[in-house]
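Figure 3 (text version): structure tokens given as input.
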């Protein structure tokens, strides 16, 4: 589909299709569009039944004539900008990119410029419109200070397919992170619901009201100076701040996390090298290193990886150096 063109789809309701809600009917027939996207079209007056704009709850009758107008993607509110990120893979349906730390995924309050979306518009003219004008192509997101791999949809079919895979939890999501402390096992899982913090509303918590199920698998790959652990994390769900909240809750917060960790006691009182490294850390040491999914076009599983960024590699190597010096002392 060419996102620069407007087009219209029509349906004539048969006897076996009657009595369905109009939004549910369209969601079942227009698989390239999400239900929320269809509801947005209805609210915008771009869906008509017998030339009239229906209510969302309208139940179809035999002989009803539905017309759905799909508008072109509008990016008029966003100006393309040069934003740093690497493209790992690109084809006619999607982009796989490596997002550096410090970049916000899409425009939000306080971040109206310099986001990943601005950079995508600068480097890619064909992006899916399902996410809306402020989030073209965006299927999922990473926190501002989390680096690593993301997939971006270039058309609505790809967007819909990838969104369904994320919702079904069939996407492979693997991270690498540096945490405080040494875990007493080689691997484990954290199965605790996550919701909004009851007092600090900008934070998430395992004790939050209305928490949703969240499952994090971890595997220890290295112990560093008896003070830190390098972990590989596999996410089975995708809650806001999930890895950061879960690891902090079990007493092993991510190094550099100013929200859920980064307390003085984690570094020790007299470790000068650790203090030096700490002063050079600008963000949490969390990196999305691998993403795997079924390609919307080929139906085949594909997996992509993004190397650990320089700032994280630097911190890990500095701490390893401390360990070697301590052993040789």
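Below: residues designed for each position.
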């Amino acid at each position: 589909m060419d996102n620069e063109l407007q087009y219209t789809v029509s349906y004539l309701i048969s006897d076996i299709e009657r009595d369905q809600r109009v939004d549910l009917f369209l969601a079942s027939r227009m698989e390239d569009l999400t239900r929320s996207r269809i509801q947005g079209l209805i609210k915008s007056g771009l869906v008509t039944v017998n030339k009239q704009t229906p209510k969302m709850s309208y139940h179809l009758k035999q002989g009803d004539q539905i017309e759905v107008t799909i508008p072109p993607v509008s990016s008029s509110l966003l100006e393309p900008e040069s934003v740093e990120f690497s493209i790992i893979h690109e084809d006619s349906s999607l982009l796989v990119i490596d997002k550096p730390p410090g970049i916000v995924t899409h425009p939000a309050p306080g971040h109206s410029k310099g986001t990943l979306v601005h950079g995508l518009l600068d480097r890619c003219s064909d992006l899916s419109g399902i996410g809306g004008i402020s989030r073209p192509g965006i299927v999922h997101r990473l926190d501002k200070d989390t680096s690593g791999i993301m997939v971006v949809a270039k058309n609505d079919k790809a967007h819909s397919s990838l969104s369904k895979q994320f919702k079904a939890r069939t996407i492979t999501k693997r991270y690498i992170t540096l945490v405080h402390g040494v875990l007493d096992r080689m691997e484990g899982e954290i199965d605790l619901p996550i919701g909004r913090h009851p007092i600090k509303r900008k934070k998430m918590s395992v004790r939050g009201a209305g928490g949703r199920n969240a499952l994090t698998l971890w595997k220890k790959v290295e112990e560093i100076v008896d003070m830190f652990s390098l972990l590989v994390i596999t996410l089975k769900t995708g809650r806001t701040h999930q890895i950061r909240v879960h690891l902090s809750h079990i007493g092993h917060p991510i190094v550099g996390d100013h929200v859920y960790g980064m307390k003085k006691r984690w570094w020790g009182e007299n470790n000068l090298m650790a203090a030096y490294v700490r002063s050079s850390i600008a963000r949490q040491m969390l990196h999305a290193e691998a993403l795997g999914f079924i390609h919307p076009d080929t139906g085949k599983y594909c997996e992509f990886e993004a190397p650990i960024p320089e700032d994280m590699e630097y911190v890990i190597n500095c701490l390893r150096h401390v360990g070697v010096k301590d052993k040789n002392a």
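The mean pLDDT is 84.
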